[in-house]
Amino acid sequence: MIEEGKEKVWKDYQKEIAEDNYFYARSCIRQNFFPGSEVAFLRILKELGKNLFDDPRHTTCTGIAYHSDIVPFDTTMTVVARHFALMTEAGLKNFVPSCITSFGIYTEVLELWRHHPEIEQKIKENLLKATGRTFEKPENLAHSSDIIYKFRNEIANKSKYRLVNKETGKPLRVVEHIGCHYSKMFPEKGVGGAEYPLVLTGMVQAWGGEVIDYPERRQCCGFGFRQYIVQANRGYSVACSKKKFESMAPYKPDLILTNCPGCPYFLDRWQYVVSEMEGVTYGENNGGIPVFTYEELAGMVLGYNPWDLGLQLHQVPVEPVLDKIGVQYKKEDKYKGVNGKDLGRPESPSCLKI
Amino acid sequence: MDTNKTVAVIGGGIAGMEAATFLSARGITVYLIEKEDKLGGHLLDWERLFPTMRNGSEVVKFLMDGVKADNIKIMLSSKLTAAEKSGKGYNLRINENVDLFADAVLVTTGYDLFDATKKEEYGYGIYDNVITSADLEKIFMSGKALQTKQGNVPKKIGLVHCVGSRDEKAGNVYCSKVCCVTGVKQAIEIKQKMPYTEVFNFYMDLRMYGMHFEALYKKAQADFGIQFIRGRLSEASEDQNGGIILKVEDTLMGKPLKLTVDILVLLIGLIPAKGSKEVGELFGLKNGVNGFYKTTDQHTLTNSSNVDGVFFAGACTSPKTITNTITDARAAASTVAAYLFNYRSLERKIEQNEDFWLYNTK
Q1: pLDDT digits (tens, 9 = 90+) for B141-171
Q2: pLDDT at residue B355, rounded to an integer
Q3: A positions 210-269 inside 8 Å of B (CB)
Q4: How far is the C-alpha of A145 from the C-alpha of A160, rounded, in Å?
Q5: Does A94 share its domain with A194?
Q6: Domains and their CATH numbers in chain B
Q7: Three-state DSSP class for residue B50
Q8: For labelling alongside A167, which of A3, A16, B76, B304 has CA 20 to 30 A away?
Q9: Which of A186, A195, A220, A243 to mutate to test the interface with B (most CBs of B within 10 A)?
């Protein structure tokens, strides 16, 4: 592998990311899948002194329904227009979605309007008729992982921990996995493009880790909407994830880092499913490979309490990573809610070591 | 026979050399202007030629014999930096310090090779064992054994056709014309050097249009056991040992295919030369939609440009084989002579419909 070759590609895929004053658009599903991540994002930005508006009137972008052929694109565009109207009403110009599919939807809509201003005009009329709202298009559209990428060095400077094994002094080995809708549709809209994306790699490198390039790196995680919404297709979803696990396992990764709502969920949960189905695990000592969102990883290096980050809700335990780095945490607090009340213990898997 | 006429030939590749030879034979003084320090262009970097496997150096030697004429002034390491119309001809400036006058200009700036790093998914410049067809020729010319970066004898080699050609994503919709048969030729050369190495060619379709090309393709299969798989590579990735894992659909079988090769060769296409752009700007020459120079007509006036007294030869107007280039160079010499000596043949006109037919999408 010639790293300089990747750096050459990265130079061709640099995007403008706004410095401050963000309109934040939450994901529909992340708050259920990994409830600590978006909260951690808000906390990190606040600590960096950034201005961000988290608007409760914001709704779904219809992305999953659009990609499942349930919602027509005109409806999707009008919903997107409403979100831009909320941003405009807030006096903001920098739109930051938390979801990768939303980022893909916003990018696609803006690109379509750029090529077909008459469609934008029609949607403006639709929105005005339906809600009485008007809007300006964002001056800057960046995914929330772009924002963390932008401030990766500031986070590194404030960090309490490095992605380094405290026993061996070696960098942790990290699998990075971008969501397909981050840059596979519009490579120039993602930091580093689609083939050798930099957005997560940049974070890992800034925080002391080492990125693994493995053969199935570009493969989908298995979250593809058609693969899991249609129950009969879920075997494809597991198969996709399994293909990735088998490909990355020989490189002995310490963790997987992701920037999509679905990827961390499926890469985490399907490790349990594969272990139950086939008795196979991919991590050390019959364990799994811990999976993190970028906010969780940023929060971890900044020294946030792992249980405030929601790391106890992962199927594959994260403690091996915490222990390698030397993160201080209270084991006994793992299953306590925010009010300190014990939430009980999940049932143990039959094969995957927890 | 001295005619007192002077022609500047811009580019000392095979088109420029052969055109200069035939212009000089008519008593015309030729300035053969080449930016590199040698004549021969890309052919200097190519070992053997399809379909006969002749050494490229033999063709270079043949062309060199032509440009030895007294009335050909070879100017090496020379770059045209300015051009100004003067009467019917041109005042030209070379390297900022040499001025000369030419009654006509023949542009023979050739082509550049497609930059394979633009097909990011194939990993050229990133994976250790991905090389281009041009790199392979250099290895052949060096006489060294073909090895992986890790120093092993390759057991499997893949060749990918149409890299940067017939590819809208890469910005080149046209066929580069020479890569199909080059892929067959190089596959055979690999088998000749390493009979126990398996060779796979991945193609969209094979355009074996030239004399003997089809025979070469058949020979590759029948005599050398080279496998041709109809399918465009979707991606390449590197395994832990430096092997290249290919994902491709075998469209004849209708099945996805995954295969690991030790070396992957990308058959890169021909693109308009950077030098053509620079020279074109000096004279105000028009380009066609594919970026190569636009000839006055597709069928008949194939060596004429939109600028009076400026003509084309060779691959600067479209990808061409060596055979086609040499023929085109002689035709260009004839066209330039017709211009200089006022032959009636250049007065003929033909109605243009190229823009409408090829490029008007409305």
Answers
A1: 999 999 999 999 999 999 999 999 999 889 8
A2: 64
A3: 213-218, 250-251
A4: 20
A5: no
A6: 6-110+273-359 (3.50.50.60), 117-269 (3.50.50.60)
A7: coil
A8: A3
A9: A195
